[in-house]
Specification:
The complex is a heterodimer of chains A (309) and B (184). With 309 residues, chain A is of the alpha/beta class. Chain A has 11 helices and 9 strands. Classes of the chains: A alpha/beta (309), B alpha/beta (184).
Chain lengths: 309, 184
C-alpha cells in the first residue's frame, strides 16, 4: 500500500493498521532526512498549510511548523488569542476566510472534541487534528508508537501502561487505539477518579497499584496531571498524588527488569516523574520530540499526495 | 488487444563486457578514487553501482572506494500529479560530498527528470567539486531536460511506447537487457 485510506487525519480510530505502518515507513525516510546536513526537501513547495491553534501549545505547534518548513510548504500561523475569534467570529467563518487565501491544508487544535471532524465536513481543505479537547491527538499517538518501535524493535506484543490523568487526556485515547491496532497490550494506571468509567470496554485493564503496573509493562507512558482541565478536585493534593503515582529512580530500580519511560510533555518534574528518571537512560522523552517532526512530515506528505493537482 | 513482444538488446556476455568497460573508463578518470564517491539512485541504480564497485575492486584491489545510495522520492517534480504516490526507498549516505567528485549512477536515462531530482537530493549532502553521470542504457531521443551522461553502457534509440527492462542476475536468472514493445 502506498496511499492512506483517509483524506484527513482526524483520529487514530479512523485509521487502518496498514495506514499506520505506511506512516511509520515514510517517517523512517524523513528521520534520515532531518539528520542530513541539509534538512529540507522541496516536496510540498506548492502547498500552503495553515496552523490554527485555538488552545495553547508549544511543542506541537513548533513541531508542526518545523515539519511544514522542512517540506518547503508555505506556512501561516493563527492563534485565537490574537484574532477575530475574540470578536465573535464562528469557527467555520474563521476557517473559510483563511481558505479564501488559497490554503490547501489546515492543522487545527481546538478545546472542543470533534472540532476537526466538524471542519472536515464543512470546509474544503485537508484537515489534520492536532488535538481536540479530551478526544484525540493522533500525531502524538503515532510518534509515541513510532518511538516504541524504534527503541524495542516493534510494537506488536509489547505491554504498555498509560499512567495518570487518563480522564482528561486525548493522548491516552489516541494511544490506546494506536497501540491496539499495532498489536500491543494496553493498560491504564491511576486513581479511579482519573480513569474513565467504561475504560474496560476498550479492552484495557485498570491497575490501581503503580508498582504492579510497572512490573507488568515493557513501556510506561506517563501523562501530565492536567490541572487546567480539572474542574473539581480528583485527588487530595499534588503531593499525595506524587507519593502514590509518581515514578522515581528507586521505584524503577526495585523492578527486576528495564522498562522504557515516555512522556508527551510538558513534564511536571517532581509530580508524575522525578528528575532523575526523566533524564535517565530509561527515558525516551527527547527521542519522542525528534520523532514528532518526522511523523508529522510523513502525515503531511501522505495527505498532500492525495490532493490532486 | 495489446500484444507484447520482447527483444533482447544486451546478452549476459555483452552485459559483463559493458560493466568491465565502464569500470575501466572510471579508473581512467578517477585514478585512485581517493576523492571520488559513487552514488546510486534508488531503486534501480543501486544494483548497478554494486556491480561496478565489485568490478572496480576486482581490477584495482582498492577496497576503500566510497559509495552510497540516494532516494529521490521527495525531490521529484511530479508530486501530486500521479494517481498513486511513490513510496520512498532507503537512503544510505553516510558521507559528505563536500569537495568530492561524485559519479551519479542509474540504470536507464530516459527523460532526465530522475537525474535532475538526484542532483538536487545530492546537494543536501554538501557541495561536490564535480558531478558526473553514468548510465547503463541511454534512451537518447526522449529527453525532457538538457542532461547528458558521461559514461554510457549502451545507447538505445526507442519510441515512447517501448520499454527498456534491465534484468540483474542477483534478482533474475541472468543479466540481460530487453526491449518491450506493446502493439495494438
Amino acid at each position: 500500500m502506498s496511499e492512506l485510506s483517509v483524506n484527513h487525519l482526524l483520529g487514530i480510530k479512523n485509521l487502518q493498521r496498514e495506514d499506520i505502518e505506511l506512516i511509520f515507513k515514510t517517517a523512517d525516510n524523513f528521520k534520515r532526512i532531518i539528520n542530513q546536513p541539509i534538512k529540507k526537501v522541496p516536496t510540498l513547495r506548492d502547498i500552503t498549510i495553515a496552523n490554527l491553534f485555538f488552545e495553547n501549545s508549544t511543542r506541537t505547534r513548533l513541531s508542526f511548523e518545523l515539519a511544514e518548513k522542512r517540506l518547503s510548504s508555505d506556512v501561516i500561523n493563527f492563534s485565537s488569542a490574537s484574532s477575530s475569534v475574540k470578536k465573535g467570529e464562528t469557527l467555520i467563518d474563521t476557517v473559510n476566510n483563511i481558505l479564501a487565501m488559497k490554503v490547501d491544508m489546515v492543522v487545527i487544535r481546538h478545546p472542543n472534541p470533534g472540532a476537526a471532524e466538524f471542519l472536515s465536513r464543512n470546509v474544503k481543505a485537508t484537515i489534520i487534528n492536532a488535538g481536540d479537547g479530551a478526544h484525540e491527538h493522533p500525531t502524538q499517538a503515532l510518534l509515541d508508537s513510532f518511538s516504541i518501535r524504534e527503541r524495542l524493535g516493534s510494537v506488536k506484543g509489547k505491554k504498555v501502561v498509560i499512567i495518570g490523568d487518563v480522564l482528561h487526556s486525548r493522548v491516552a485515547l489516541s494511544n490506546i487505539h494506536c497501540l491496539q491496532k499495532l498489536g500491543a497490550e494496553v493498560a491504564v494506571c491511576g486513581p479511579s477518579t482519573l480513569i474513565p468509567k467504561y475504560i474496560n470496554s476498550l479492552g484495557v485493564h485498570h491497575y490501581s497499584d503503580l508498582k504492579e503496573a510497572l512490573k507488568w509493562c515493557d513501556v510506561a507512558n506517563v501523562l501530565r496531571i492536567q490541572l487546567e482541565r480539572q474542574d473539581v478536585n480528583y485527588f487530595p493534593s499534588l503531593r499525595e498524588y506524587s507519593m502514590v503515582y509518581g515514578i522515581n529512580k528507586e521505584l524503577l530500580d526495585s523492578l527486576e527488569k528495564e522498562i522504557v519511560v515516555m512522556h508527551p510533555g510538558p513534564i511536571n518534574r517532581g509530580v508524575e516523574l522525578s528528575s532523575d528518571v526523566a533524564d535517565s537512560d530509561h527515558s525516551i522523552i527527547l527521542d519522542q520530540v525528534e520523532n514528532g517532526v518526522a511523523i508529522r512530515m510523513a502525515v503531511m506528505y501522505l495527505l498532500a499526495g492525495k490532493l490532486k493537482k | 488487444m495489446k500484444m507484447k513482444t520482447e527483444k533482447q538488446i544486451v546478452s549476459s556476455n555483452q552485459f559483463e563486457i559493458m560493466i568491465e568497460r565502464l569500470a575501466h573508463q572510471l579508473i581512467e578518470n578517477h585514478s585512485d578514487f581517493s576523492e571520488t564517491i559513487l552514488v546510486g539512485l534508488q531503486p534501480r541504480g543501486v544494483e548497478f553501482t554494486n556491480r561496478v564497485l565489485e568490478k572496480l575492486i576486482e581490477i584495482t584491489k582498492n577496497k576503500d572506494i566510497i559509495s552510497g545510495s540516494l532516494d529521490i522520492t521527495f525531490f521529484r517534480d511530479d508530486f501530486g500529479r500521479r494517481d498513486t504516490p511513490i513510496e520512498a526507498q532507503e537512503l544510505d549516505m553516510n558521507v559528505s560530498v563536500e569537495g568530492k567528485k561524485v559519479v551519479l549512477i542509474d540504470d536507464v536515462l530516459f527523460t532526465g527528470r530522475s537525474i535532475r531530482a538526484g542532483m538536487d537530493a545530492l546537494m543536501s549532502f554538501g557541495r561536490p567539486k564535480q558531478v558526473e553521470l553514468m548510465v547503463l542504457i541511454d534512451r537518447r531521443l526522449k529527453r525532457h531536460l538538457p542532461i547528458q551522461p558521461n559514461y554510457v553502457g549502451k545507447t538505445v534509440d526507442s519510441i515512447s511506447s517501448e520499454r527498456v527492462v534491465v534484468k540483474w542476475k542477483s534478482e533474475d536468472v541472468k543479466d540481460e537487457i530487453i526491449l518491450l514493445k506493446s502493439e495494438e
